[in-house]
Amino acid sequence: MQKIIFDLNVYKLDAVKRSIGYFCDVAYFALQQDGNNVVVEINAKNDNEDLNHISMEIKNKVIEEDIRLGVEEETKTIRDSIYKKALNN
């Protein structure tokens, strides 16, 4: 078992949740919020899975997803305007 702690002042909770979803085939996960942190508990499904590698991949994926969510928020108005124009024509 391994734990990763993410600071919710830095990363969005949705980014953490989306990220661990990519790894449900190789590990079991539990999330627990502790103040401004979310603790991700990781348990490998198979003994041959490298938890350190999985943890590092999750950390990278959380950064990627957090950026993606930020871009979605920043471009929401423009995206909605484009959809609105496309549907009105």
Give your account of this protein's structure.
This protein has helices at 13-21, 51-74, 76-88, and strands at 2-7, 27-34, 37-44. The protein is of the alpha+beta class. The chain has a single domain, classed as Ribosomal Protein S8, Chain: A, domain 1, CATH 3.30.1370.
Main attributes of the structure:
89 residues, alpha+beta, Ribosomal Protein S8, Chain: A, domain 1, 3-stranded antiparallel sheet, 3 helices, 3 strands
Task: Set out the fold topology.
Blueprint: E1 2-7, H1 13-21, E2 27-34, E3 37-44, H2 51-74, H3 76-88
Antiparallel strand pairs: 1-3, 2-3
Helix pairs in contact: 1-2
* Count of individual beta strands: 3
The low-confidence parts are none
Strand content: 15-25%
How far apart are the termini?
55 Å
Rg (C-alpha, Å): 17 Å
The largest β sheet comes out as: 3 strands, antiparallel
Q: What value does the average pLDDT take?
A: 94
Helix and strand composition category:
alpha+beta
* CATH hierarchy class name: Alpha Beta
**CATH-level-2 architecture:** 2-Layer Sandwich
- Helical content band: 40-55%
